[in-house]
Amino acid sequence: MKKKLLALALTGVMALSLAACGAKEDAPAAPAASAPAASSAPAASAPAETYTVGICQLAPHPALDAATQGFKDALTAALGDAVTFEEQNAAGDSPTCATIVNGFVSANVDLIMANATPALQAAVAATADIPILGTSVTEYGVALGIKDFSGTVGTNVSGTSDLAPLDQQAAMVKEWFPEAKTVGLLYCSAEANSQYQVDTVQAALEDLGFTCTQYPFADTNDMASVTQSAADNSDVIYVPTDNTCANNAGIVDNICRPAKVPVIAGEEGICGGCGVATLSISYYDLGTATGEMAAKILTGEADISQMPIEYAPQFTKKFNEAICADLGLTPPEGYVAIG
Nearest-CA neighbor of 134 among 122, 148, 146? Predict the structure, then answer.
């Protein structure tokens, strides 16, 4: 009996010992029990942050189209599928820009790209919180009514400028037409940046000895009559970077070319439609620079309020081969034909 009891006792001790052993071997399972907590919030498996960017373009035009494409390409290269574009075109109607950007604000987009001055002005009026990047805007101080503009807006606005050296554009008139006496400056009075350009170019032209007259038109309703007046009274016409002229270059060409009055243009798109020469920038490159700025803003790498306005890195002298041939003009050295 004692042996039997002893055997039972030994069996119990062994069972306890095995249980203890099992508990020790299972001990690592305790961290495993907490593993779901660790795996429930791993940074690597969380969805990447996504961004929605609203694009408001004033009008369909080769220069503005190129800027928008450059912007989208650069931002997509930087952020890939994380960025979605809401792209709308105002078809040349400035009030429509306000409708478009107000829709972007209601949708709470992460950033607004405003292509051309009226689009920028509408965006600034619509929000002081959402970052706004302008492009194809000639002079931000003029567009936004900032006196003594230093180059940085200092609010939720920055962007890129398509302003070419205006004194060099004036010098082109002298280079091409040294015998000319009178220069007509044709522009849309509704565009503040156009007024700024013609005032600046006029001062430079007068320093070069030309007599200048400004020919402003309010909109397309009086554009043809004002252009005819300019052609009748000018040896040469200068057209600044002006959205209305860009959209209606055919009106200028149909009046000036038959009258044998050459046009020096502020940008390549206008020159391609009605001009003989221009000091050109790449609007695609301008848009690319704007897209690179947008990537830095969206990812928090840069503070838009501290970002200065950027300008085109280089300029190219170009001429319109067809119009020059019609007018019997040979371009000076250093000019390349518009492709």
Answer: 122
pLDDT at res. 28: 39
Read off the pLDDT of residues 298-336 as tens digits, 9 standing for 90 and up: 999 999 999 999 998 889 999 999 999 999 999 999 999
- Listed in sequence order, the residues at least 6 apart from 201 whose beta carbon sits closer than 8 Å to its beta carbon are 166, 169, 170, 185, 238, 240
> How many of the other CB atoms lie within 10 Å of CB of 175?
16
Q: Which of 167, 127, 159, 165 is nearest to 143 (CA)?
A: 159
Specify the amino acid at residue 149. Answer: F
Q: Are strands 277-280 and 263-265 parallel, antiparallel or unpaired?
A: parallel
Q: Which of 194, 55, 192 is nearest to 114 (CA)?
A: 55
pLDDT of residue 339: 81
C-alpha dist (Å) from residue 75 to 204, 259, 260: 38, 46, 45
Q: For the chain, where are the alpha helices, taking DSSP H only?
A: 2-26, 29-39, 62-79, 94-106, 117-126, 140-143, 166-176, 192-207, 220-233, 243-247, 249-256, 268-274, 283-298, 321-327
DSSP strand pairing (236-239 vs 182-188): parallel
What is the tally of helices (H) and strands (E) in the chain?
14, 13
Q: Is the pLDDT of residue 13 over 90?
A: no
Task: Express each pLDDT in 121-180 by its tens digit.
Answer: 999 999 999 999 999 999 999 999 999 999 999 999 999 999 989 999 999 999 999 999
Residue 324's DSSP bridge partners are: none
CA 268 from chain centre, in angstroms, equals: 17
Residues in the chain: 339
Q: Which of 171, 162, 145, 147 is nearest to 64 (CA)?
A: 162
